[in-house]
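Table S2 (text version). Query chain:
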Amino acid sequence: MSKIRVSELAKKLGIDSKDLLEQLNRAGVAAKSHASTLEESDLQKFDAAKAAAHAAASADVKVDERRIGSGLIRRRATRVATPEEETGAPVPASAAVPEPVMAPPPPPPSRPLPPWLMRL
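Corresponding structure-token output:
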């Protein structure tokens, strides 16, 4: 069984040790510092969680690329609708956006304006 330290893995992946520790903790690997050692099973857990997160993120986004000039490419990421959204499943009431309510106009003045204001 090979063991590797968190700092060595971070250097190999090209990221900061603190960021790697956060990712490891989200993946369910108990690592407390940069000097913690990771076993093969921990690396497999981390790789599986990373692959699952990447697959979920890439499944929801479609990237359109269009060449604008000789050295210019325009990329647009669009969200792909899930099958539930395509079938027209009812949207929960909490997700519906209420229409803005406009305040009524102020009432006209009850007495006539003084003559010096009428000239303006």
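Notes on Table S2: Strands lie at 4-5, 37-38, 61-67, 73-79. The domain at 4-59 is CATH 1.10.10 (Arc Repressor Mutant, subunit A).
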